[in-house]
Amino acid sequence: MAKRPISIKQVADAAGVSTATVSNVFSGKKPVNDDLAARVRDAAKKLGYRVNRAASNLRSGQSRVVTVMVPDLSDPYFTSLVTEIEEHAQRDGYQIIVANTKDDVETERGRVSALLSWQPDGMIVVPTSDNIPEQLLQVKDEVPIVITDRGIQTKEFDVVRVDNAAAGKMVASHLLEFGHRRVLVVASDMQISGVYDRCNGAIERIRAAGAQSDLVEVGPVPDRAAAHLARWLVKNPMPTAIFAVTDMTTLATLTCLAELKAEVGYDVSVVGYDDYPWMVARRTPITAVRQPVEQIAEAVWTLLLRRMNGDDSQIEVLPLECELRVRASSQPIEKTEETRGRRGRAASEVK
Amino acid sequence: MAKRPISIKQVADAAGVSTATVSNVFSGKKPVNDDLAARVRDAAKKLGYRVNRAASNLRSGQSRVVTVMVPDLSDPYFTSLVTEIEEHAQRDGYQIIVANTKDDVETERGRVSALLSWQPDGMIVVPTSDNIPEQLLQVKDEVPIVITDRGIQTKEFDVVRVDNAAAGKMVASHLLEFGHRRVLVVASDMQISGVYDRCNGAIERIRAAGAQSDLVEVGPVPDRAAAHLARWLVKNPMPTAIFAVTDMTTLATLTCLAELKAEVGYDVSVVGYDDYPWMVARRTPITAVRQPVEQIAEAVWTLLLRRMNGDDSQIEVLPLECELRVRASSQPIEKTEETRGRRGRAASEVK
DNA sequence: TTGTAAGCGTTATCAA
DNA sequence: TTGATAACGCTTACAA
Description:
CATH architecture of the largest domain in chain A: 3-Layer(aba) Sandwich
CATH class of the largest domain in chain A: Alpha Beta
CATH topology of the largest domain in chain A: Rossmann fold
Largest interface: A-B, 58 and 56 residues
Oligomer: homodimer
Number of strands of chain A: 11
Radius of gyration of chain A: 26 Å
Helix content of chain A: 40-55%
Distance between the termini of chain A: 67 Å
Number of domains of chain A: 3
């Protein structure tokens, strides 16, 4: 059924040269006489020839493939990470193969195997959990691996990460400066170390300032997260500020506040995580922590590239800094008091 | 430097069998005695063996690879499409390779070549423009290709598409039912046939009802789009309803209305395109057209699979229907009149 | 600068 | 059911 495509041999015959010459024309590894090169290209074009990666990889032992594994392709943060990485890969002559683990350890295991069969020259991994799949431990001497975003700091792998604790502290300081003394931190899953660090960074600083900080862990499922948070807000006195430490919890928080008819920036200040276009497409734009995706992607790529080029030295990668985009959703405490006061509502009424 | 990984030969030796047997154990194409199979698996595990796709592809002529090319990986619609397709592919034993053309015809050309070198068994393409890259025309007899979302209806390729005109009409009817008589349609790029069809569907129906419908084409760049729309809105009397025909124009529209301090659902009704979580995380959730991504992905995959299995028959794929998620951002005209009236503003004042 | 030929790891054919 | 062996298309010594 599937007849085989044009091979290098056919091109060589058509151009009246050897296969080696054809190979050299396309790889550029050895110089080829211009006339011959032209003749080869002509023949190739006429026949519709394209190098067969499989054969090329097999013979050379170099796949020029880098795999990228992320926990959730529907998360815009990971998509942008992938997009950035692809850019770098492209430029350096690598192809990337993306795998989505769907935040599931089983799937992750399966994907690792599938990816390894490509004989990648390198791997970029955002682990689903802090437990890095053991298959990766097995192959870590054969293929360079760079971990990012999730996974615990380890001496086993190169890791590029953001300073999550610092990000949490930054948000806390911002809210404290605005006079907030009751801040709710909304976490998805504290098992994820990045989430844990952000929360802790924020809470510590707030408490150190003698203010009050609570934590709700709403789980990883969006719908349930909003409901969970709503229950908490009804049971407890309304905080004056909320810090949502992930993309998803930001959405859950806003959904929840909308349902409770609490007005963002007035009744309560909100700081979200990750910075997306929709956050600005609102009457009250959302203050948010922006992760430096471009820098992260670049750090990941250059690190991996060094490893792929055989650099075995101890490379220390410093944690990257996040940035706070201050917008109208976070306001000085006076605004909140004024709002709640004007409505003749005590804090307890806005549940 | 890069020592070659374990080969089938080494496993065969370790297990005391032939390479053919090892191959059969892993491919399952021929039955193997249980004892032998166990021995092989043991040896393989011990050695850390994994089949080499390159060699396997080369010999069998079957890559079990399907490529997916999309214009913009940062567009959540395409991400979800890719995610859905991957699911199907996975189930049927195919690996997908994703390429992002970044809405650029040059990049697209480059990517097509790169993808073809994988010798894919099938290709799924969302063309950047209506002009399907000519390289695809050249290979369309060698490898099955399914086009979706963009690209003009053609007899050359199998196409899975949504009924864009119908979607436009649906929105128009919704707004007409609510009594709106001045509807603005916000398009990104009318060169994209889907966008064109949506606009036209909507505008035709509105005009057929004797109501007024204007069109602004704001271009493909988000920032400029909002500014462009803002200029239009200032120069013209405020419509009572706006239909944004893409994800990006929806965002641009909302950004713009927020800047103009026009309240969505009150001063003006808004219908957006594509349905995302952020649309609900607002005080006024957005009415939106939801494309049936799952159905589209499934249709694409089953069609491609049939072609990959050698089905040459004429297959007609019916256009799929979109759905309207009605929410608070679209309101009966009375609400708008009331709002504008109460504020003591004529339509002209809310510019 | 070009050609010859071996061999990468796998699968398919054929024989046992 | 298993094994021996050729061949897939390419790259790369090495020879010319």
